[in-house]
Here is the input.
Amino acid sequence: MRSRRRATVIACFLAPSLLIFIVYRILPLVWNVVLSFEYWSPLHPATWAGLDNYQEMLQDDDVFWLALWNTLIFLGSQPVAIALALGIALLVNSDLKGASVYRTIVFLSYPLMTVAVAIIWHWMYNERGGLINYALRQLGIIHQPIAFLDSFAWALPSIIIANTWQVLGFFMIVLLSGLQNIPPHLYEAARVDGAPAWARFFRITLPMLRPSVFLCLVIGMLNSFSAFDLIYVMTNGGPGHATELLITYIYKQGFVSTRFDYAAALTVAQFAILLLLTWIAHRAVGGNAGAIE
Here is the structure.
């Protein structure tokens, strides 16, 4: 009787959150999958399309492949950001004077709204009055300003740098938390055994940081597949789709071209790719997290 009453109380507490999750998460996802197999417009009734939307995506849509490639490049920048954050975390976790101040300065970029970050970096990249072009000219590195956000070669790397700057503080805090949870006696035992610094790093620090690194990788992947605000404000996917990501292309197909059925198919493809990459990350980093060989 007591266990039944306990289960009822738990169910009552969980029911509102579970209902919201089903209504706002599960049902839209199911409807999106169904919509991807239809021809649908707000002004016309839905008709069955089968795999036509997916066939168009894979065979006829060059912009989809370009957006996917750009998204994967964006995703490939996340391990670089994690490596930089790990280096900073190691520094501020040491006996460095003023480490707490440096830690605060690095983290300050993360709480900023993405739109604010995009505006700041858009000004910094400005061809005429931007801080970066001004600094490069003063140092004698360039003689003519670089149109960072209007260049096919520079636009995507410029946005990746802005994104890395924003997420660096978050990754640093996660990795710093992992570093501070490593038992000190492991390092003491390694020093007694005569293990050099590089051996302690690769045999103790990295294995014990696997849960933190896995979390950073997952957050980085989600960030890469949802970096809409940054792209929309800085370049809107241009020039010539050079910075188009899957998320911005989905938005344009759905809310600009009003092809909600095709946008649904693109969303399903993005969701499947994200699941696959998360599984790969779990197999590579997340499995047996924290184990020391």
Notes: The chain has one domain: 52-286. Residues 52-286 form a domain with the MetI-like fold fold (CATH 1.10.3720.10). Residues 31 and 264 are 9 Å apart (CA to CA).
